[in-house]
């Protein structure tokens, strides 16, 4: 005959309503022995109920931990007992009390589930001793399979001021973006992470892309960098160089010329990009109106001579390479000629202005 689908103490529980609760609490073991008849051992739920009848709270928690398949019941029961001041709290050997230990275990189990991990965050928040440390460790192991999930994780970290985790997540997303040649997204993530080194790397990619294509991608992002451009010198240069193009497009040639010159003389522009900047100056040197003053023209001449004087900088062509390259040689000669003509025009203009004042 199959055993009835309820535990050994279910029958005594029904008897308690007839015989009184005092009988059951006084003789739980006798009731259990009577029902089992010595032929079988108690089931896990029998042990739980026995501990409950004896008001042995810690034994109830222990038996539930052994018998149940997850930590949900144990964690919530312990939390409830703790709030009701019915649980004698004592620290475990690793520094956390029983309530927190069980909540940590339950939260860890939630983090292992692909759709319940966000609930685990709330449980960690209610663990004052080890909750934050545990959350940081679990956050770092979440697979960022989609950008939407990454944004959720990032928001959780930002709300809790988990600076290192924010930087790590942003850097991972920036690396993914740059591998997919999404420079705008990569730059956005590096700025959000406040990672100056990575922002410099992405800015260099923007400049290389500009050199190859002759135009910038993601103009909206570059045009709206604002204070973020101060994160690194290269990012500052990228933002200011884009501003020069905007001024040139608006035909504000004098402002554009001053900005172009300042990018070279302030050492913000990488030396490897100087030839591009000097080439950008050519249309301004050829304007009917004198754009560069005599002093500014001398500065441009000095920059050109520095670039071609045989003092190579790592990563840029040296003087011998420039002389051997027909295209570069032609650019240099055109610049020297344009600078000389502009200098003569500027001297004449400035001399005539001084004469008219005299």
From TrEMBL:
It comes from the Eukaryota. It holds the Pfam family Nucleopor_Nup85. Keywords: Membrane, mRNA transport, Nuclear pore complex, Nucleus, Protein transport, Translocation, Transport. GO terms for molecular function: structural constituent of nuclear pore. One of its GO terms (biological process) is positive regulation of DNA-templated transcription. Functions as a component of the nuclear pore complex (NPC). Component of the nuclear pore complex (NPC). This is Nuclear pore complex protein Nup85. It comes from Rousettus aegyptiacus (Egyptian fruit bat).
């Amino acid at each position: 005959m199959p055993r009835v689908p309820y535990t050994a103490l279910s029958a005594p529980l029904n008897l308690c309503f007839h015989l009184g609760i005092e009988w059951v609490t006084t003789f739980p073991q006798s009731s259990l022995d009577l029902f089992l008849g010595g032929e079988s051992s108690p089931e896990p739920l029998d042990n739980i109920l026995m501990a409950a009848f004896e008001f042995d709270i810690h034994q109830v928690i222990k038996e539930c931990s052994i018998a149940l398949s997850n930590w949900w019941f144990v964690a919530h029961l312990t939390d409830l007992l703790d709030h009701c001041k019915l649980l004698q709290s004592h620290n475990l050997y690793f520094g956390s009390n029983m309530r927190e230990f069980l909540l940590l275990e339950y939260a860890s189990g939630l983090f292992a589930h692909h759709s319940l991990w966000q609930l685990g965050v709330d449980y960690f928040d209610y663990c004052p001793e080890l909750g934050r440390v545990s959350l940081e460790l679990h956050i770092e192991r979440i697979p960022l399979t989609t950008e939407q999930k990454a944004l959720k994780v990032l928001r959780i970290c930002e709300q809790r001021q988990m600076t290192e985790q924010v930087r790590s997540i942003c850097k991972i997303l920036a690396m993914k973006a740059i591998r997919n040649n999404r420079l705008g997204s990569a730059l956005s993530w590096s700025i959000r992470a406040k990672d100056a080194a990575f922002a410099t790397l992405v800015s260099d990619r923007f400049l290389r892309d500009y050199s190859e294509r002759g135009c910038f991608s993601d103009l909206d992002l570059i045009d709206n960098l604002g204070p973020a451009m101060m994160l690194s010198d290269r990012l500052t240069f990228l933002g200011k160089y884009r501003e020069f193009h905007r001024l040139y497009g608006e035909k504000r040639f004098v402002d554009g010329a001053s900005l172009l010159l300042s990018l070279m003389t302030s050492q913000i522009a990488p030396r490897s990009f100087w030839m591009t900047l000097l080439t950008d100056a050519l249309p301004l040197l050829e304007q009917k109106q004198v754009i560069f003053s005599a002093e500014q023209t001398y500065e441009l001449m000095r920059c050109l001579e520095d670039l071609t004087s045989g003092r190579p900088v790592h990563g840029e062509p040296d003087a011998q390479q420039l002389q051997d390259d027909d295209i570069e040689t032609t650019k240099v000669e055109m610049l020297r000629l344009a600078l000389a003509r502009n200098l003569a025009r500027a001297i004449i203009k400035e001399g005539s202005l001084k004469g008219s004042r005299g």
